[in-house]
Amino acid sequence: MGRKWNNIKEKKASKDASTSRIYAKFGREIYVAAKQGEPDPESNRALKVVLERAKTYMVPKAIIDRAIEKAKGGGEESYDTLRYEGFGPNGSMVIVDALTNNVNRTASEVRSAFNKNGGSMGVSGSVTYMFDPTAVFGVQGKSSEEVLELLMEADLDVRDIIEEEDTVIVYAESDQFHAVQEAFKNVGITEFTVAELTMLAQNDLELPEDAQAQFEKLVDVLEDLEDVQQVYHNVDLGE
Asked: Cβ contacts of residue 170 below 8 Å, gap of 6+?
């Protein structure tokens, strides 16, 4: 199940931080989560998840505070949560999650990204059945044995625990996100290299070099779309 989470995240964070787009995407996601519930992460679990993930991408506090204050002030912006499914080169599978105030614009842009980069849109359910909703945490300063022990003491049975270089990666059911987070915090672990609710492919696909280059272009184009929040796929991009 090793997807080299730190390498993937660092590559994405470096790319996004250079354009500041990651901050805009998080600002929108935080605003929507805060507006849909209480603007307090202790009573709004969706907001708490977003804020934990924002910390791992080093989103500035000013951007987080601004989004929450905007929600508190009754901001009138309204966003729809959308999920698109599609196929890339060589039958690779892609899931695209978006937040948009213009459904037609977003659908057109996502479809165009697929069509121009060796892919095609699929119908609802054509891809997601090959992915599992998953909570992923990355912690440092502990061995996999120590992490397993503390999770067992918290009576948590997770899917998998692996070591990637100096980081221990925990894969758990999506509804265990808060329980795993609390188990770590109860032993003083409050900083995570990864804290994600994601869609994890059941099987990774390796592509030939030419197809992989085209696939990476497809993912880059999708991630650069203003309305796209997350792109999940089943391709092993290596390190």
From this structure: 135, 136, 137, 138, 139, 147, 151, 158, 160, 161, 180
What tokens appear for 115 in the block? 């069509």
Q: How far is CA 88 from the centre of its chain?
A: 19
Q: What is the pLDDT of residue 3?
A: 53
Burial class of 144 by CB neighbour count within 10 A (0 to 12, 13 to 18, 19+) = middle
**Interatomic CA distance for residues 110 and 81, integer angstroms:** 14
Domains and CATH numbers, the chain: 5-72 (1.10.10.200), 80-129+202-233 (3.30.70.980), 132-200 (3.30.70.980)
Tokens of 187: 């032993």
The rounded Cα 22 to chain-centroid distance in angstroms is 12
Instruction: Report the pLDDT value the prediction gives residue 1, as an integer from 0 to 100.
Output: 46
The CA distance from 213 to 207, in Å, is 9
Q: What is the DSSP string of 66-126?
A: HHHHHHHTT-----EEEEEEEE-GGG-EEEEEEEES-HHHHHHHHHHHHHTTT-EE--TTT
Q: 225 and 113 in contact (C-beta within 8 Å)?
A: yes
Mean pLDDT (whole number) for 152-162: 94
pLDDT digit string, tens, across residues 181-231: 999 999 999 999 999 999 999 999 999 999 999 999 999 999 999 999 999
pLDDT tens digits, one per residue of 167-176: 999 999 999 9
Distance CA 24, CA 17 (A): 10
